[in-house]
Write a structure and sequence with these properties.
2 copies of one chain form a homodimer. Chain A has 2 domains: 238 residues, 3-Layer(aba) Sandwich (Aspartate Aminotransferase, domain 2); 102 residues, Aspartate Aminotransferase, domain 1, CATH 3.90.1150. Chain A is built from 10 helices and 14 strands. The first copy, chain A, is of the alpha/beta class. The longest helix of chain A is centred in the last third of the chain and has 21 residues. At the A-B interface, α1, α3 and α7 of A face α1, α3 and α7 of B.
């Protein structure tokens, strides 16, 4: 009983690969025979330095990140990045462009607005956040210090299928919910950030990938702990990092390599999402997908049933069948299946069977 | 071999209670039979809400915290608090008093200085940070918005033996390295903060205990993630917290209760420290304690040998004998034995034996 597992569709914190959990369990009281847990070893020890390096190199290899980018591990989640970005790159004056495709881009904008001048260059709010703009639709402000967008919106379930090209404007991307789910062209970006708790590891660590030329524009004499340069100069350790979180990230990277890297993950993720969207599309309207087809997320599949009562019944019955965490975000309702890297195809197949059965019984 | 344990004198991250690690190991793949790891469950789930409540109540019970104080779990370590405190309580104008007793109070002051006006009302720098001021020595500025001090300085090994009384000035205390090591009079404080990685849990969580009247003075319209009020209003979860870290804190609190609470821990900690200081004092000068006797830390015992070469030899031989992490902080050198709550008395006795033997062989 204690170690039975269920299918966990949570949007984050989210499912982790079982081999990662097993390794963490095995090493809990003594990391590689050193006589201490990873949680207990000094962040200045050779053991932890190797863990940090392994996590960093793992991310660099998987995403093929060029050498003119730094990989940093911070705390505070994507939410702290919503603030650090404008504090570092906007507070000195000028304006930044924001692309608004859902709740998370709204939140990022709100913090930037407290700090400086912004322009919304695209918003899909009027349509109920069912779409993302095409590259051709985007018109950057000539003087924009950067353009910010969210590559996947977990709440609405919309995702960019392309790497946004800033045409000279530095591109800053919140990739919290789809990083490492597919190959991307890192060179299109000036800064990519991601809370770890969806595709990378546990909550409490944020991965920041920042290009050197952007880093150099961070102002001097700001609060040390909010200064990207300080983290870069001290190898992510101006202070004690979340050592356990970074350890789990290193194990997740090892697992991703063993699965064949991001090309392999992308193929699997597409297959998983396709199964679910096919179930929605073939349900004769019993299930209604939220996102427009061309903006459908491969990570968070969002859909509605005919009534809130039926949605509640769906989630309760699913939960009773070992399909956990399907309730949509409290702000929008509906149903959401989050199927990140570590979510197994068997779980998607089980959900599809359940969906078909539930529709047959409730049509 | 894999699960042998050593004596870990690290200053933080630091040793955790073995029963806590064993429990975390047991529940790694399925927390209380729910089919998910704690790292995988949603922070909005009933399971995690119970964990958060347990951690909070555990700290409240152990420290006997009155109801007009909020207990918050943040990220970013004490270092983020060095910034958040002046950003919340000094940036609007006025001045704050700082008591300087070592590296950590210096760092806190440096961040406040970037933000507003400060006064050093006491510093022990000239003496090499071997002492702390008495209550009687302290003269608060009549208009000080708050007074900030560090109750235990890990690098120099000096500790306040009393709860500083602000005589009307709100007292803010960095208690990172001695919180939960003894009973304190919480009502003397307006804000107590502590990075978890010494006496409370793993790195990546900061505990903040804040009195309601101070909380109410936090300014509106600041960056959400740097706003104490935002954390208080959202039960520490305006965004995803470090769920694993909070889980371990809840287990550590359970363990502390089972040990008899803080009165019991204080007694044990005094005994452990007394053994080490007695070994220093009876060594005929072979070991020279850094701190003045009345300021000696119960948590971090710092001492020197006759030369750096001898200190290096001491630490290397100790390490080879399963006594790990004794090297002093890189900024001051020497030897440091950190003996937090979870550090066993048997480890102190082993170190004392080693010290006596080493002195005999090298005198």
């Amino acid at each position: 009983m204690l170690n039975h597992r269920i299918y966990n569709f949570s949007s984050g914190p989210a499912v982790l690969p079982v081999p990662v959990l097993e390794k963490a369990r095995e090493e809990m009281l003594s990391y590689r025979g050193c006589g201490m847990s990873v949680m207990e070893i000094s962040h200045r020890s050779s053991q932890f330095e190797a863990i940090l390096e392994s996590a960093k190199q793992g991310i660099r290899d998987l995403l093929q990140i060029p050498n003119n980018y730094q990989i940093l591990f911070l705390q505070g989640g994507a939410s702290l990045q919503f603030s650090m970005i404008p504090m570092n790159f906007l507070a000195g004056g000028g304006s930044a462009d924001y692309v608004i495709t859902g709740t998370w881009s709204e939140k990022a904008l709100a913090e930037a607005d407290r700090c400086g001048s912004t322009r919304i260059i695209s918003t899909k709010k009027d349509g109920g956040y069912k779409a993302v703009p095409t590259q051709e639709e985007l018109r950057f402000s000539p003087d924009a210090l950067y353009v910010h967008y969210v590559s996947n919106e977990t709440i609405h379930g919309v995702e960019f299928t392309y790497d946004l090209d800033g045409h000279g404007t530095p591109v800053i991307c919140d990739a919290s919910s789809n990083i490492l789910s597919k190959a991307i062209d890192v060179e299109k970006y000036a800064l990519i950030y991601a809370g770890a708790q969806k595709n990378i590891g546990p909550s409490g660590v944020t991965v920041v990938i920042i290009r050197d030329d952007l880093l150099e524009t961070a102002p001097k004499n700001q609060q040390s702990i909010l200064d990207y340069r300080n983290f870069a100069e001290h190898g992510s350790m101006p202070n004690t990092p979340n050592t356990w979180g970074i350890y789990i990230i290193s194990l997740v990277c090892d697992w991703l390599h063993a699965q064949g890297g991001l090309a392999s993950m992308e193929k699997r993720n597409k297959e998983k999402a396709a199964l679910l969207y096919a179930a929605i599309d073939s349900s004769d309207g019993f299930y209604a997908g939220h996102a427009e087809r061309q903006a459908r997320s491969q990570m968070n599949v969002t859909f509605r049933l005919a009534s809130e009562g039926l949605e509640r019944k769906f989630c309760e019955e699913a939960d009773a069948n070992g399909l956990n965490g399907l309730k949509g975000h409290r702000s929008v309702g509906g149903v959401r299946a989050s199927i990140y890297n570590a979510f197994p195809k068997s779980g998607v197949e089980t959900l599809v069977d359940f969906m078909n059965d539930f529709a047959a019984r409730n049509s």
